[in-house]
């Protein structure tokens, strides 16, 4: 077996920028700590803008990035979109945006129309909640993906050519599969590898079954990111099988790598994580590696170059 570590351009398909001192992110406010899969996240309650990001990413050839909504005040979703466009205008990054939209809100149709007018918005995200563990899912607890009011909002996405970024644990993916089948014209981009946080044999088996089922539907793709573990440094031994199986399940044409920075800096450095990604797929043909690291994210998010990434254009 020959290996060739990927050395080409990278489009980071999932990251955040923020300025907690001036941005209304309730979960990043002083004195607030919500339950979080990585535990105490106080270390990321700091300003994080493109210059900070490109220092973290300096060892890798990141050429474009995709900003994901960061749970800005839900009373002002357009405020976040406006803010991140000013960041993009100043720094040349991000190059595409996943905006916030509460699909069960009374004004969901109006909001989606407004979000779609921004030049970098390609997708929206609304975490659908639901079962906290596989047992609750088996007992019948459902997410917003099964609620009529939410589905009315979801139906508006295709009218604007918007994708849906889905963040939900693997035990809710049966609902996601039904959603994708019922709305074939809307692309679902599954965030954070289906959240395989339970690394027991039973947990990994359940995750694998769920991912295989949802991958049967062609309008679902996946981002390989967010696979760190609480209180444990990110290392390839913990994550190699998950990375390899995700690529095998979805194929290199329907998966993409992402940093989830600065959140995943709680688990490891940018270099550790992306070097791990590169190691995990180094035996694949270089063209497939390019799909995973660059082409797929560029294609799905239609990234838009504005000025040299990481440089202040003012």
TrEMBL record:
Q: Tell me if Plastid is a UniProt keyword of this record.
A: no
Question: Which keywords appear in this protein's UniProt record, sorted alphabetically?
Answer: Hydrolase
Q: Which residues form the Amidohydrolase-related domain?
A: 11-302
GO MF annotation, one: hydrolase activity
Q: Which SUPFAM superfamilies match?
A: Metallo-dependent hydrolases
Among InterPro entries, the record links this protein to: Amidohydro-rel (IPR006680), Metal_Hydrolase (IPR032466), Metallo-dep_Lactonases (IPR052350)
Quote the PANTHER family the UniProt record gives: AMIDOHYDROLASE (PTHR43569), BLL3371 PROTEIN (PTHR43569:SF1)
Family statement drawn from the similarity comment of this UniProt entry = Belongs to the metallo-dependent hydrolases superfamily.
Q: What is this protein called?
A: Predicted metal-dependent hydrolase of the TIM-barrel fold
């Amino acid at each position: 077996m020959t290996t060739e570590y990927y050395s080409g351009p990278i489009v980071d398909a999932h990251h955040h920028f923020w300025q907690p001192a001036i941005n209304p992110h309730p979960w990043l406010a002083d004195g607030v700590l919500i339950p979080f899969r990585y535990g105490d996240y106080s270390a990321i309650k700091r300003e994080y803008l493109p210059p900070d990001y490109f220092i973290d990413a300096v060892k890798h050839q990141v050429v474009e990035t995709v900003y994901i909504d960061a749970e800005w005040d839900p009373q002002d979703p357009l405020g976040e979109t406006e803010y991140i466009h000013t960041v993009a205008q100043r720094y040349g990054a991000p190059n595409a945006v996943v905006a916030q939209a509460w699909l069960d809100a009374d004004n969901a149709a109006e909001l989606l129309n407004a979000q779609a007018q921004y030049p970098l918005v390609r997708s929206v995200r609304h975490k659908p909640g639901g079962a906290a563990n596989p047992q609750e899912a088996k007992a019948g607890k459902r997410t917003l993906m099964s609620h009529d009011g939410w589905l009315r909002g979801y139906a508006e996405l295709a009218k604007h050519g918007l994708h849906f970024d889905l963040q939900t644990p693997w035990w809710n993916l049966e609902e996601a599969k039904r959603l994708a089948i019922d709305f074939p014209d809307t692309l679902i981009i599954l965030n954070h590898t289906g959240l395989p946080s339970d690394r027991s044999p039973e947990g990994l088996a359940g995750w694998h079954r769920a991912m295989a089922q949802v991958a049967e539907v062609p309008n679902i793709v996946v981002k390989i990111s967010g696979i760190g573990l609480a209180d444990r440094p990110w290392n390839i031994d913990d994550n190699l099988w998950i990375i390899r199986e995700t690529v095998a399940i979805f194929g290199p044409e329907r998966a993409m790598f992402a940093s989830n920075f600065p959140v995943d800096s709680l688990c490891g450095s940018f270099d550790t994580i992306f070097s791990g990604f590169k190691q995990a797929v180094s035996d694949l043909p270089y063209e497939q590696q390019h799909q995973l690291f660059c082409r797929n994210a560029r294609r799905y998010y239609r990234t838009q170059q504005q000025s040299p990434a990481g440089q202040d254009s003012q």
